[in-house]
Amino acid sequence: xxxxxxxxxxxxxxxxxxxxxxxxxxxxxxxxxxxxxxxxxxxxxxxxxxxxxxxxxxxxxxxxxxxxxxxxxxxxxxxxxxxxxxxxxxxxxxxxxxxxxxxxxxxxxxxxxxxxxxxxxxxxxxxxxxxxxxxxxxxxxxxxxxxxxx
Length: 150
Description:
This protein is 38% helix and 18% strand. It has helices at 5-13, 25-35, 41-49, 65-77, 79-84, 133-141, and strands at 18-19, 53-54, 60-62, 91-96, 102-106, 116-119, 126-130.
């Protein structure tokens, strides 16, 4: 039986959070096969409890397996993006702010496996905004607005 650690923490932070059915390990492994990167342990644990989490307005606090795969594949394959931005190969996007900025784990190099970074879609800046997935969810919940990381 999977514990409900992530669900309990998220419910405390976001009273109106919307959870999905848990993702199976085979589904989560699909992220690794498709993106060629290991899924961080914390993200794997959360996805095992809920295949994505949305806030009360429908914004993706953490995307589903499908969204993670699709969004990362799109960013990596989009020729317009490659002409204007640095490579996205080292990132694993897992959420967004609803206004174009994306949240990601840096997977290459492997030195910061738990840190969450934000990618600014206007400047292509990538900066650390949280020390872990739990820290990211906590900081986001305690903010006033979508630009809490600025």
